[in-house]
Amino acid sequence: VSYAHNMSDLRRLFGEQLRELREQADLTQTQLATASSMSRPTLVNIELGRQGVSLEQLYALAGGLKLKPENLLPSGIEQRTQVAEELAKMTSHDRDLVNKILSQGKG
After folding, report:
1. Taken in order 3, 71, 86, 50, is the CA torsion positive or negative?
2. Rounded distance between C-alpha atoms, residue 21 and residue 49, angstroms
3. Does position 23 have pLDDT exceeding 50, yes or no?
4. Contact yes or no for 67/21 (Cβ under 8 A)
5. pTM for the whole thing?
6. Cβ-count burial of 64 within 10 angstroms (0-12 exposed, 13-18 middle, 19+ buried)?
7. What integer pLDDT is reported at residue 87 of this predicted model?
8. Which DSSP string do the residues of 11-80 spell out, in sequence order?
9. Mean pLDDT calculated for residue range 75-89
10. Are 72 and 17 in contact (CB under 8 A)?
11. Which candidate, 103, 105, 82, 81, places its Cα nearest to that of 12?
C-alpha cells in the first residue's frame, strides 16, 4: 500500500469521525466552523476527506466540539486498509457476496 493511499484513507476516516462527532454534539457545519475559527467550506472539505487538517485545526475542532483532540482521531485505520486490500483482490462476484452478507448483518 502506498503512503498516499494511506493518507487518503486517513483523511476520509478523519472526516467521517468528525462528522459523526459534530452530529452527536447537535452542531451544524456552520456552528462548528465558527466555533473552530474556520470557514464552512473548509469544514465541508475536511468532513468529505478532501482536505487534511493541521495540528492547529485539530485543536480548534476539538475545542469547538468540547472534546480532547485525540477523540477526533479515527481508530482502526490499519484494519480498514487491510480489509480494503483484501476486497480489492476479490472478483466482483465475491465482493458482491461479501457486501450482501455484511448488509444483512446491519438490518
Report:
1. negative
2. 15
3. yes
4. yes
5. 0.67
6. buried
7. 72
8. HHHHHHHHHHHHHHTT--HHHHHHHTTS-HHHHHHHHTTSS---HHHHHHHHHHHTS-GGGGS-S-HHHH
9. 65
10. yes
11. 81
Average of per-residue pLDDT across 52-78: 88
**DSSP single-letter state for residue 1:** -
Name the more confident of 34 and 7.
34
Cell of 40: 464552512
**CA dist., res. 24 & res. 94, Å (int):** 35
Task: Give the pLDDT score at 5.
Answer: 52
Distance CA 77, CA 83 (A): 10
Nearest to 18, CA basis, from 36, 37, 3, 2: 36
Query: How confident is the model at residue 84, as a pLDDT?
Result: 66
107 compared with 92, residue with greater pLDDT = 92
